[in-house]
């Protein structure tokens, strides 16, 4: 059975003076215990909103959430904030994008780690603090006893993200959500943090939802990958399937825009033309059609459905990559 | 932290020196010079001449200034001519200071005790009835002049309904020992509970009147600050850890939201003092504010000097304390 079942999750932001934003639109996916699932897509496609909906951290007012988020048999969307507070940090944890702003500047690092231990593991302040030092050590922060008393401005960017990872994993949750955990970091630090995450996930058996706009990150970490576009999943596949045979034009576009070690020197990357600003609403056809090289007439008339094309593989496209080739092969 | 404190104390010294020069200059620039200022217009020629010599006004300016400083350091600002004629100005000040301090502290306590929680809850229920009510109230607090509000409070609660005393610091019939001059404190120290209570009751209306502006400022700043802070990523992190509402509120929201508020509390000392001048008039409280207005009316420059110098120093000192408190909350200031 799946650890987490997200079904038909939709999030709309309804504001009086502004048009309603449909940020997440009927998203469904499963996360199995101990596995790593990727959510990939350009900025603004709804990755963060999806993760915040799962965590119950979306702003209350003006936000309409529907569908179902089921963690180990209990429906999270129906929990009150008070009930949710007993689960967050314990059964599911989250690491955010910007470590600098995600740490409280006026609370010592140690207390920010130990408070979650105190809360969910029922340890005394002293024991929780000792445990916090052990955790800081585990995530690779040198001299943890001294760091406990320090504040976020005294830590480097990488150290801050390590501390945040320690907090999220302090109670060994079954599920960890990492929302672009390396985007705000230096390139050299990024790899270290990803390696650390991978180690910890393997060590604790925690399932991981890895959110990123960077297919390079996906290639290194994920078992299964969901590609999001304009709030909808457009393609899902096992990682090696996706990389060896991308079917959705958007997925292929993303891959073409990732620098590869084996690509010829000086060859220009091919970013996807246009921007999300060109999207049409899904109601009017395929949201990607204004930017899509494969677009057919039907694409601007009718939205494609998400269909199972093979075992474990989903696709939302009228004219996927390789379709013509496949047909030719049939003839 | 030590270096910071020393630097701020240095600033205090500079402010005091600059102010003493200004006061010295002011006294000499008065129509008729300091002699008329001290003796009044109708003094005889002999007494004028005597004073000129006594004050050393025939000597060069810098000598005069130095003498002024020497006397000021020993607390000698001359003798009151108008507020309490014949009493040394310093003594006048010391007698009156407790009344004003008591009033201002209570007013500030009221403003903080009401303004901060109200600011927090108004922000958390932004647009709700409590929010709208508090905003309206704080607007009225700022817009209505303090003396008018003081009159209104006095009229309604003291004269019309008679539930609170209309003037003074303590009922005349109360047998109270005054050891410190702070009447509430005196009553508590001597366990004369009725005296303490009576003094507190006398303080209530003037303190409420005096607290309106600091309340309004503290309330609005708390509200705005909380609205900013709840949007911060670290508050979301705190929630993602499932810390109960109490911890998120106290440790993660309020501690950060208080930073600008703490500074403002220091700046409010100025508003309190100017407010005290009017409030003390209305409720006939023999404090510094009253001494200041009487001092101007009766041109009692000796008393005015002490009061102005002392209030300026209090203002700078309070702000120093506030900055230290700020540094105590904000580690970024301490460890840089
Ligand atoms: N609180 C909010 N109010 C209104 N719109 C929002 C809010 N949060 C996110 N959005 C919108 O929802 C969409 C998805 O945002 P997000 O999930 O943050 O994207 P990303 O994939 O980059 O994480 C964006 O169009 C964004 O503008
Ligand atoms: S449905 Fe049409 S427009 Fe959309 S991705 Fe597929 S081919 Fe392109
Ligand atoms: Mg995001």
UniProtKB/TrEMBL annotation, chain A:
One cellular component term from this protein's GO annotations in UniProt: plasma membrane
Lipid bilayer topology: Peripheral membrane protein
Molecular-function GO term, any one: ATP hydrolysis activity
Keyword Transport: yes
InterPro entries: AAA+_ATPase (IPR003593), ABC_Ni/Peptide_Import (IPR050388), ABC_transporter-like_ATP-bd (IPR003439), ABC_transporter-like_CS (IPR017871), Oligopep_ABC_C (IPR013563), P-loop_NTPase (IPR027417)
Localization of this protein: Cell membrane
Alphabetical UniProt keywords: ATP-binding, Cell membrane, Membrane, Nucleotide-binding, Transport
Gene Ontology terms: biological process: peptide transport
Domain ABC transporter: 6-255
Family: Belongs to the ABC transporter superfamily.
Stated name of the protein: Peptide/nickel transport system ATP-binding protein
Organism of this sequence: Actinopolyspora alba
Origin organism lineage: Bacteria, Bacillati, Actinomycetota, Actinomycetes, Actinopolysporales
From TrEMBL, chain B:
Membrane topology: Multi-pass membrane protein
PROSITE patterns assigned to the protein according to its UniProt record, in alphabetical order: ABC_TM1
Pfam families, A to Z: BPD_transp_1 (PF00528), BPD_transp_1_N (PF19300)
Family matches, as CDD domains: TM_PBP2 (cd06261)
Localization: Cell membrane
Transmembrane residue ranges: 12-29, 103-123, 135-157, 195-219, 257-278, 302-329
InterPro entries: BPD_transp_1_N, MetI-like, MetI-like_sf
Chief localisation class: membrane
GO terms for cellular component: plasma membrane
The UniProt record lists the keyword Glycoprotein: no
Gene Ontology BP term (one): transmembrane transport
Keyword Transmembrane helix: yes
Domain ABC transmembrane type-1: residue ranges: 97-326
Keywords: Cell membrane, Membrane, Transmembrane, Transmembrane helix, Transport
Top-rank lineage group of the source organism: Bacteria
Family as reported in the entry's similarity comment: Belongs to the binding-protein-dependent transport system permease family.
Official protein name in the record: Peptide/nickel transport system permease protein
Source organism of this protein record: Actinopolyspora alba
């Amino acid at each position: 059975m799946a650890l987490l079942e997200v079904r038909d999750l939709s999030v709309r932001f309804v504001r009086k003076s502004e048009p309603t934003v449909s940020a997440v639109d009927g998203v469904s996916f499963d996360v199995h215990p101990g596995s790593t699932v990727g959510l990939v897509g350009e900025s603004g496609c709804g990755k963060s909103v999806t993760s915040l909906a799962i965590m119950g951290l979306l702003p209350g007012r003006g936000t309409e959430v529907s569908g179902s988020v089921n963690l180990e048999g209990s429906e999270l969307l129906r929990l009150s904030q008070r009930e949710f507070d007993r689960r967050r940090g314990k059964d599911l944890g989250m690491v955010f994008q910007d470590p600098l702003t995600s740490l409280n500047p006026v609370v010592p690092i140690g207390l920010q780690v130990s408070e979650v231990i105190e809360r969910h593991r029922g340890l005394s302040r002293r024991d929780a603090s000792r445990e916090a030092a052990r955790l800081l050590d585990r995530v690779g922060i040198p001299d943890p006893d001294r760091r406990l008393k320090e504040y976020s401005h005294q830590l480097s960017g990488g150290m801050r993200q390590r501390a945040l990872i320690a907090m999220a994993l302090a109670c060994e949750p079954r599920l960890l959500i990492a929302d672009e955990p390396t985007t705000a970091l230096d390139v050299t630090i990024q790899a270290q943090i990803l390696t650390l995450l991978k180690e910890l996930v393997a060590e604790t058996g925690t399932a991981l939802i890895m959110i990123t706009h960077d297919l390079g990150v996906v290639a290194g970490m994920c078992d299964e990958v969901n590609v999001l576009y304009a709030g909808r999943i457009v393609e899902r596949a096992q990682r090696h399937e996706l990389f060896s045979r991308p079917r959705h034009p958007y997925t292929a576009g993303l891959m073409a825009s990732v620098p590869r070690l084996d690509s010829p020197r000086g060859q220009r990357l091919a970013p996807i033309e246009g921007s999300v600003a060109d999207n049409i609403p899904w109601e009017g056809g395929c949201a990607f059609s204004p930017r899509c090289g494969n677009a057919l007439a039907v694409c601007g008339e009718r939205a494609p459905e998400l269909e199972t094309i093979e075992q474990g593989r989903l696709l939302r496209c009228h004219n996927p990559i390789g379709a013509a080739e496949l047909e030719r092969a049939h003839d | 932290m030590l270096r910071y404190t020393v630097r701020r104390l240095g600033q205090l010294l500079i402010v005091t020196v600059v102010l003493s020069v200004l006061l010295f200059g002011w006294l000499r620039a008065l129509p008729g010079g300091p002699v008329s200022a001290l003796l009044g217009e109708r003094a005889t020629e002999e007494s004028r001449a005597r004073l000129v010599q006594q004050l050393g006004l025939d000597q060069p300016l810098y000598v005069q200034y130095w003498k002024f400083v020497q006397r000021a350091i020993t607390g000698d600002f001359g003798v009151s001519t108008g507020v309490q004629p014949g009493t040394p100005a310093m003594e006048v000040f010391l007698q009156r200071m407790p009344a004003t301090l008591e009033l201002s502290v209570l007013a500030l306590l009221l403003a903080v005790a009401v303004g901060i929680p109200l600011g927090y809850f108004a922000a958390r229920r932004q647009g709700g009835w409590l929010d709208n009510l508090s905003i309206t109230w704080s607007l009225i607090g700022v817009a209505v002049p303090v003396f008018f509000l003081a009159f209104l409070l006095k009229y309604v609660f003291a004269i019309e309904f008679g539930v609170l005393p209309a003037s003074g610091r303590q009922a005349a019939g109360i047998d109270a020992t005054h050891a410190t001059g702070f009447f509430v404190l005196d009553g508590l120290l001597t366990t004369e509970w009725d005296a303490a209570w009576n003094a507190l009751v006398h303080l209530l209306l003037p303190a409420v009147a005096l607290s309106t502006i600091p309340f309004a400022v503290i309330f609005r700043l708390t509200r705005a600050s909380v609205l900013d802070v709840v949007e911060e990523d670290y508050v979301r992190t705190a929630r993602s850890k499932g810390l109960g509402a109490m911890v998120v509120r106290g440790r993660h929201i309020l501690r950060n939201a208080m930073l600008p508020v703490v500074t403002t509390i220091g700046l409010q000392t100025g508003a309190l003092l100017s407010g005290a001048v009017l409030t003390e008039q209305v409720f006939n409280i023999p404090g510094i504010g009253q001494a200041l207005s009487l001092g101007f009316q009766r041109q009692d420059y000796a008393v005015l000097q002490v009061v102005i110098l002392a209030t300026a120093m209090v203002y700078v000192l309070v702000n120093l304390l506030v900055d230290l408190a700020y540094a105590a909350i904000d580690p970024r200031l301490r460890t840089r």
